[in-house]
């Protein structure tokens, strides 16, 4: 039987932390399905810069990913019911509570394990493993360039 794995996240600007997470999730089964969060559901941090479809298409193109799916707008368990995974792998820092997800799955009669992935630490100075921090660095660099031009 093919073991299906589900991973999920925003994936706005791809970085090595994402690759680490998706590779780890892919190694837990034969098929990796990735649910890409809808912009309207990213409410606990700055919303993504890139459109839903673009974020989905980039994840879909990765070799370790079997298929990337845009998330449901209202009910996060609708894609889960459709994919029918054997395991959902939560990201190391995802705010979702594993036991709450297990309870919700049981309530819907979905037989699926929930695991937590490991985090990937920076391997050299300056390596950025967070989309939010990449955006912050872009803004800081652009602001300092503008300051340089203004000073001329
Ligand atoms: C099992 C599971 C299923 C999810 N399905 C959806 C979904 O259908 N639609 C969606 O917009 N977000 C979905 N999400 C939420 C996002 O993937 C994501 O966790 C959140 O919106 C963005 O936060 P993050 O980037 O910190 O993970 C799901 C999350 C989990 C854990
Ligand atoms: N350094 C990392 N190591 C392992 N997994 C990571 C790392 N960074 C992100 N992930 C995982 O990748 C998935 C997608 O991450 P997402 O794009 O939602 O946020 P992010 O890259 O952490 O950006 P931000 O810091 O802006 O939230 C999540 O499940 C997250 O836990």
UniProtKB/TrEMBL annotation:
Q: Which UniProt keywords apply?
A: ATP-binding, FAD, Flavoprotein, FMN, Nucleotide-binding, Nucleotidyltransferase, Transferase
Top-rank lineage group of the source organism: Archaea
Q: What is this protein called?
A: FAD synthase
The residues that hold ATP are 10-11, 15-18, 93
Q: EC number(s) for this protein?
A: 2.7.7.2
- Show the GO MF annotations: ATP binding; FMN adenylyltransferase activity
List, alphabetically, the PANTHER family matched: FAD SYNTHASE (PTHR43793:SF1)
The entry assigns this protein to a family as follows: Belongs to the archaeal FAD synthase family.
Record note on quaternary structure: Homodimer.
Q: What is the lineage of its organism?
A: Archaea, Methanobacteriati, Methanobacteriota, Stenosarchaea group, Halobacteria
Any one biological process term the GO annotation gives: FMN metabolic process
